Amino acid sequence: MDFWQGIEALKARWTARAPRITDLLGDGDRNAALTGVAGSFVFDMTKTSIAADDWAELLALAADVPARRDAMFTGARINETEDRAVLHTALRGTDPVMVDGVDVMPGVHDTLARMRAFADEVRGGRFTGQGGTITDVVNIGIGGSDLGPAMAVLALAPFHDGPRCHFVSNVDGADWAETSKGLDPATTLVIVASKTFTTIETLTNAKTARDWMGGSVSDPAAQFAALSTADDKTRDFGIDPSRVLGFEDWVGGRYSVWGPIGLSLMIAIGPDRFDDFLRGAREMDSHFRTAPLAENLPVMLALAGIWNHQVCGYPTRAVLPYDNRLARLPAYLQQLEMESNGKGVTMAGDAVAGVAGPVVWGEPGTNGQHAFYQLIHQGKVPVPCEFMVAARGHEAGLDHHHRLLIANCLAQSEALLKGRSHAEARATIADRFTGAELERQAAHRVFEGNRPSTTLIYPQLTPEVLGGLIALYEHRVFAEGVMLGINSFDQWGVELGKELATSLGPLVDGADASGKDASTQALLAQLLAWRG
Ligand code: F6P
């Protein structure tokens, strides 16, 4: 059956049944069918409105995933619109992978060895700044050249034993100004991370950093390193090739934390722990490649996503890590999911017959509970929630905090599931109100419940677990993209805005704006008036 016909059939049955998730939970086989295990992860999707027969039909919709997956892992040019292989998995792999008849793995391992050597030199004080041992590292990059390492460096803070790492991404000078405050240029290493080395935000920040450093040291470029596929451009910028770590065009920006773009993470936690990070991802790769679809965690996440978005029509999904150090995970997943699957055209160039990727958003729990959970519990549009929590934190003396964290995570999914009826709400306030006022007050305290969620649990947030977690989501995005028939590895939708920003540059300097639409002209005129 065609994917979209399958979706329509599932939608029709789900609408007719209008199931209560609590009723589905009575089914004895449900826990076994809708709970998946991979290495250190257990994924529970029992609190969704997927019934047993739905699950069997959803799995049939994933039938094309294995062939496409195998094509990806073996170096086929599955990024057809850019005519590229998709091999971020090779960055953490061990087995040979051929692209155009050449094994890419010796190059991958050579680059990893260079990263390791440089990270060791920085961490061991053998690579110094012009004022001595490197105390601070600033990664300048944006999108995939920022979000991955920034997210991972924060996530793995308990494992840091290298110099402090900072991240500058926004072309807003505030980002550079705030981040560079208090840094000593003579003991700072600047890493310019840009796959293309053409990204205007990154180059602007890199030049500002070079000027800043040039105010204090005689040879600023000597304290710069670059991570890029564009050797010629890094050379033009003045960075010595010995400090340029390259990668190939088969690594997409948002999938690039596993190689040179992860250098700041490697410097922060050390090469051995970086190896653990890669190993965690490799184990998830192996699971994705070998587990049957019905027990395959990335496929299960993908089908939960397809069910909630394409079948039930819920427009967004919230990622809610009950793990404060995963604070940047929602932003990271926004790029991974929305830049990959936020598409309207199929691989063949036709309009997608339904909706593709959902809006992804989120914040760590418990903070979100005191901010936007009101809407999640009582707003009219259900928001599928993806909870995640570790069994243990890293704060040995603060385990009572962690117990509360776990209790809150489980409480939220339970509250979303069960809700609170009018009668129950009335009972909670019957001692304070009577008559019509009791009914009115009770109405505000009703929770419809029946709100879907999934929960991912793991023992503790270690480098290995983080590697597995990111790989899990990468493969989930891939599997969803295969089912939707789209190319998850291009991002043409970012181009138009870049082109227009280039054309608007001179207008902000006062050039004739008459070619612009009336709205843009008016906004520009007011901004220019205020700029004086
Ligand atoms: O504009 C989008 C994008 O191309 C992302 O896909 C990418 O991660 C980011 O810009 C940064 O690109 P680069 O690493 O080439 O500077």
Automatic annotation (TrEMBL):
<protein>
    <recommendedName>
        <fullName>Glucose-6-phosphate isomerase</fullName>
        <ecNumber>5.3.1.9</ecNumber>
    </recommendedName>
</protein>
<keyword id="KW-0413">Isomerase</keyword>
<feature type="active site">
    <location>
        <position position="370"/>
    </location>
</feature>
<dbReference type="GO" id="GO:0051156">
    <property type="term" value="P:glucose 6-phosphate metabolic process"/>
</dbReference>
<dbReference type="Pfam" id="PF00342">
    <property type="entry name" value="PGI"/>
</dbReference>
<dbReference type="InterPro" id="IPR001672">
    <property type="entry name" value="G6P_Isomerase"/>
</dbReference>
<dbReference type="GO" id="GO:0004347">
    <property type="term" value="F:glucose-6-phosphate isomerase activity"/>
</dbReference>
<dbReference type="InterPro" id="IPR035482">
    <property type="entry name" value="SIS_PGI_2"/>
</dbReference>
<dbReference type="GO" id="GO:0097367">
    <property type="term" value="F:carbohydrate derivative binding"/>
</dbReference>
<comment type="pathway">
    <text>Carbohydrate biosynthesis; gluconeogenesis.</text>
</comment>
<dbReference type="GO" id="GO:0006096">
    <property type="term" value="P:glycolytic process"/>
</dbReference>
<dbReference type="GO" id="GO:0048029">
    <property type="term" value="F:monosaccharide binding"/>
</dbReference>
<keyword id="KW-0324">Glycolysis</keyword>
<dbReference type="InterPro" id="IPR046348">
    <property type="entry name" value="SIS_dom_sf"/>
</dbReference>
<comment type="function">
    <text>Catalyzes the reversible isomerization of glucose-6-phosphate to fructose-6-phosphate.</text>
</comment>
<dbReference type="InterPro" id="IPR023096">
    <property type="entry name" value="G6P_Isomerase_C"/>
</dbReference>
<comment type="similarity">
    <text>Belongs to the GPI family.</text>
</comment>
<feature type="active site" description="Proton donor">
    <location>
        <position position="339"/>
    </location>
</feature>
<keyword id="KW-0312">Gluconeogenesis</keyword>
<dbReference type="InterPro" id="IPR035476">
    <property type="entry name" value="SIS_PGI_1"/>
</dbReference>
<dbReference type="InterPro" id="IPR018189">
    <property type="entry name" value="Phosphoglucose_isomerase_CS"/>
</dbReference>
<dbReference type="GO" id="GO:0005829">
    <property type="term" value="C:cytosol"/>
</dbReference>
<feature type="active site">
    <location>
        <position position="498"/>
    </location>
</feature>
<dbReference type="GO" id="GO:0006094">
    <property type="term" value="P:gluconeogenesis"/>
</dbReference>
<comment type="pathway">
    <text>Carbohydrate degradation; glycolysis; D-glyceraldehyde 3-phosphate and glycerone phosphate from D-glucose: step 2/4.</text>
</comment>
<keyword id="KW-0963">Cytoplasm</keyword>
